Amino acid sequence: MAENNQIIFDVQHLEKAFGDHQVLKDINFSIQSGEIVSLIGSSGSGKSTLLRCLNLLEVPTGGDILYHGQSILAPGFDLNKFRAKVGMVFQQFNLFKNMDVLHNCTVGQVKILGRSQKEAEEIALTNLEKVGMAPYRNARPRHLSGGQQQRVAIARALSMDPELLLFDEPTSALDPEMVGEVLETMAELAREGLTMIIVTHEMAFARDVSSRVAFMNEGVILEMGSADQVINHPQHERTREFLGRYLGK
Ligand SMILES: Nc1ncnc2c1ncn2[C@@H]1O[C@H](COP(=O)(O)OP(=O)(O)OP(=O)(O)O)[C@@H](O)[C@H]1O
Question: What residue intervals traverse the membrane (predicted)?
Fold first, then answer.
């Protein structure tokens, strides 16, 4: 983990268009190590696109993203090294179906980080224990619930020793009774000081766990501040309206 208060990402005038559709407009913010930043907002407001630009799953069409002061868009930027440091947890878990849980958590370590199988297994087991999934180390993903699969996906991401984790609606594909177990796992990581950027519709979670919250509306960050500022005392009518739907305000 990086030292606290170091700027990891500096997003400058970021734009993203799909054809004529301008999805992100002049986005500016930075992320320091140790922060937990939640991106909230209506469906289609650009949250996932923003998150996906941060690890170049989507290529910005304007502006820049600096990672420790270096543009990730610059020619020669070491994308493989960067991707190993910036982990991602997806809505649909994306586990390898033909591998058991342990193998899911070791394959990247061996292939990308060059660790030995033995070392990779030790690290994987530590992380599987952390998310409560070590007893399922030999199971195939299809034999696990959605919540269990997502916890394995988190253990897999952690096993790469990321500097920060990006979460793209990690509980949206889950049955309601499984949401809590994944959110609790994420809250524990937050307590441990992992830097996290989270796209979520779980407003109570965002309020309780985030150091900062960004409310996105039609491709812009309408307001960004502490969870208390944005969720408990929103400045914009649009934010109040949105939160009212979720929190019954
Ligand atoms: N690959 C793509 N090609 C074309 N349009 C896209 C693509 N990805 C996203 N979009 C469009 O960009 C807009 C923003 O989508 P995005 O998924 O970022 O929103 P979101 O705020 O994450 O929404 P949700 O909460 O529903 O996931 C939407 O209008 C979407 O249709």
Answer: none
Token pair listed for 12: 């400058």
Does residue 119 sit in helix, strand or coil? helix
Stated as kind and residue range, the H or E segment containing 147 is: helix 146-158
Residue 45 CA: nearest ligand 1 atom is 21
User: What are all long-range contacts of 133-139, with beta carbons under 8 Å and residues at least 24 apart?
Assistant: 133/101, 136/101, 137/100, 137/101, 137/102, 138/100, 138/101, 138/102, 139/100, 139/101
SS3 state of residue 214: strand
- Distances 134 to 45, 121, 139 between C-alpha atoms, Å: 37, 11, 10
Ligand 1 probe mutation, 49, 198, 202, 222, most atoms within 8 A of CB: 49
Tens digit of each residue's pLDDT (9 = 90 or more) over 200-226: 999 999 999 999 999 999 999 999 999
Q: Which residues pair with 82 in a beta bridge?
A: none
Residue-wise pLDDT for 73-107, tens only, equals: 999 999 988 988 999 999 998 999 999 999 999 99
Q: Which amino acid is at 171?
A: T
Q: For the chain, what are the domain ranges? A: 7-247
Q: State the CATH class of domain 7-247.
A: alpha beta
Task: Look at residues 224, 204, 201 and name the one whose alpha carbon lies nearest to residue 213.
Answer: 224
